[in-house]
Amino acid sequence: MWVGWTSLIHPQNLHIQKIWYMRQLNQSPTSNSVVVETMKKAQRIAEEAHKDNIAVTHDPAIAKVAMQIQMEESPLYDNLFIAMGAFHIEMALFHAIGKFVEESGGPYILNECNVLAKGSLKGFITGKSYKRSKRLHQLLSVAFEILHFESYLTKIQNTEEVIDIIKYELDITKQHPCTDIYTPSVEISEIIKGYQKYLDETENGIHMEKQCNSR
User: Fold this and answer.
1) Which residues span the domain enclosing 16?
2) pLDDT, position 210
């Protein structure tokens, strides 16, 4: 579905651009016979499209069955690339990020701000709730980015002048018809370059060491 939607909003200069969806199989998707039939259909599609290999995406449970069948029946299905679908890959990413920020205090800040209920904290950290994770990880990331940039501003000279340059540049970008081809000014480029250096130093723990030494 995502590929079909993307093909509609991002037209390409192709003579033929079609998206087809296979007929539904009215049986359990985890059944070995259904998984085998899906793999066979994928091979026929690859043959019709004159492709040597083709990717087949499943949810984790079905992908596991498909990979087991592929291994046992090798080399019959060796031209298939079995993988999780984009949705489940994104869920796994949310789970990984949740593990990373679990003890950072970020999730509890969301809770104190009434953005995330206490009962939903575990689902957010484990990435089980797709909509909640997709929304809240963005909010948390933006909040940290704002705080980090404000910290950067306190460490540079001519802070007020830099803030005025940023405000002016934002006003210009709002008037620009297409931000994709917008070229930032030299002043903004220098600010971004300086902030990137500050970001690299933060990732290397330099600013944390300075704070500890100052105490």
Assistant:
1) 2-84
2) 63
